[in-house]
Amino acid sequence: MTPARALPSETLLHLAGELLTPLPEGALWWPARRLLVVSDLHLEKGSNYAAAGQMLPPYDTGATLARVEALCARLRPETILSLGDSFHDRHSEHRLPPPYAERIRALTAAHDWVWIEGNHDPDPPAHLGGRAAKVLRLEALVFRHEPKGEMGEVAGHLHPVAKVAGRGRAVRRRCFAADGARLVMPAMGAFAGGLNILDTAFSAVFPEGCMAFAMGEGRVYSVARKHLVPDGRPGGASSGGWRY
User: Fold this and answer.
1) pTM over cut 0.85
2) Cα 76 to Cα 122: distance, rounded to the nearest angstrom
3) Are 39 and 74 in contact (CB under 8 A)?
4) CB of 81 within 8 A of CB of 36?
5) What Å distances lie between residue 8 and 5, 18, 36, 112, 201, CA to CA?
6) 20 to 30 A from 118, CA-CA: which of 13, 93, 146, 186?
7) pLDDT by residue (tens digit) across 135-181?
8) CA–CA distance, 159 with 179 (Å, rounded to integer)
9) pLDDT digits (tens, 9 = 90+) for 191-203
10) Across-strand partners of 36?
11) Given strand 79-82, what is the order of strands in its sheet?
């Protein structure tokens, strides 16, 4: 797979005949439909960990919402798809500080906001606005949380990251994983972890391998598979205890 031609500061990709723009913030822009896709926001992950005694700074929700708000101000999308695991657990929406809840309601009121069900948040947050869907099909594309390997699929769940080796060192970045027929989104949540796209968990989605579109400072970089390296020991690692 090769990316479409783009401006020097912009990377474009084709997916099932549609032209999409992966953004360095971790969102996906479909300009023909003025549609913005975000995935795995994991709002209130920090408060979930705090309840279990692991005290993380309580700013992840604010930082993630600020990123989404900035994209909305810049792109002015008509529709926003939040591609599952928008909240870290079933009780996250009830732990939201009131100012954050108001910011979410402002977003859902200003756009046609669709909450795609995830494994962390199968119940839609009715009091925060928007509408819910298990799967959404638009033209040749299908949007869902957990990837099935379907043609034209845009999914999340796996939190892909790319580890790139070169000049004696390696850089690990969140990334979009795509093969021209299907795409897996990076996690956008401030505290979300990541899984190397060479992990065996990606094999069922991309049986012939995929390219990484790595998030950099101010732009997205397409990375050929030959430049990717696994985490841990040579030869790759299995997903083991990774929780999606």
Assistant:
1) yes
2) 28
3) no
4) yes
5) 9, 20, 22, 31, 33
6) 13
7) 999 999 999 999 999 999 999 999 999 998 877 788 899 999 999 99
8) 16
9) 788 999 999 999 9
10) 29, 80
11) 13-15, 18-22, 28-30, 35-38, 79-82, 112-116, 131-133
